[in-house]
Amino acid sequence: MAGILENRVGLITGAGSGIGRATAKVFAREGARLVLVDVAEEGGQETLQIVQQLGGAAIFRKADVSRGAEINAAVEDAVWTYGRLDCAFNNAGIGGAGRLTHEYSEEEWNRVIAINLTGVWLCMKAELTQMLKQGSGAIVNTSSIMGLVGAIRVPAYTAAKHGVAGLTKAAALEYGRYGIRINAVCPAPIYTPLLMSGFDKRPDIEQRYIRSEPMKRLGQPEEVGEAVAWLCSDRASYVTGLPMPVDGGYMAQ
Fold first, then answer.
1. Are strands 243-246 and 9-13 parallel, antiparallel or unpaired?
2. How many helices (H) and strands (E) would you count in the chain?
3. What is the rounded radius of gyration, in angstroms, for the C-alpha atoms of the chain?
4. Is the separation of the CB atoms in 51 and 103 below 8 Å?
5. Residue 177: how many other CB atoms lie within 10 Å
6. Number of C-alpha atoms within 13 angstroms, CB side, residue 223?
7. CA 137, CA 133: separation in Å to the nearest integer?
8. Do the Cβ atoms of 81 and 59 come closer than 8 Å?
9. Could you state, in order of their start, the residue ranges of all structural domains in the chain?
């Protein structure tokens, strides 16, 4: 039985670890041909090997999402290699410093916004330019439950993720008439290397997160990847403009 992304060409940023790597594995299982993008070359190459071992077709391109020329080149590579770009998962992001709003430096603020928000816009800009030529496409952006509600000590991250949710809605309205769907996933805390490094320093935080979840567990990266694959597939053909919680019920509280 063919996968839900059979012969689709997909681009994934932040593919070198965590949710990006897990999504690449799901996409490969579902038949997609992939362009894996990450600023960390070692992690990206590892994901490339994993996808190829699973029998998937993929290439890796090193790129910083906050630099438009590098993302433009990655999209051009996708078209050069596979002839088109059918779907994209704009997932690259950073957490930023854990400080109160007045304690943030301008440099720290600008870095988080540049990668987590401006980077998503730059990716969309390049992807949409190609998808408009084709007359079709599907884009999924990574927001967060912190893009739907507030959180303390992460002001730049919260602002950026709210921005991603808003940008997703605005672009969905602009491009729906052109056969392009744009959605976002809004994960709760997910077991990724970034999150787990924080647990090493503060084990109590993990239990605090678990207690706050209706399902009394944290999510796995693959669970986000499954949602992204569905949103990129024809099974979600009438879904656009949705910031979709993948959160074990957290936002239902």
1. unpaired
2. 9, 7
3. 17
4. no
5. 7
6. 16
7. 10
8. yes
9. 9-190+220-245
Residues of the chain with pLDDT > 70: what percent? 100
Pick from 184, 116, 186: which is nearest to 145 by CA? 186
Dihedral through CA 196, CA 197, CA 198, CA 204, nearest 10? 60
Report residue 1's pLDDT band, with 50, 70 and 90 as the boundaries.
confident
pLDDT for 182 equals: 99
Mark whether 157 is an active-site residue: yes
Q: What would the two tokens of residue 86 be?
A: 């059918």
Residue type, 17: S
Three-state DSSP class for 215? Answer: coil
Structure tokens at 179: 């056969």
pLDDT in tens, 35-58: 999 999 999 999 999 999 999 999
Q: Of residues 157, 175, 191, 250, which has the active-site annotation?
A: 157
CATH 3.60.160.10 assigned to domain 9-190+220-245? The reply is no
Q: Taking the model in full, what pTM does it have?
A: 0.97
**pLDDT recorded at residue 148:** 97
User: For residues 198 and 202, what is the distance between their CA atoms, to the nearest angstrom?
Assistant: 6
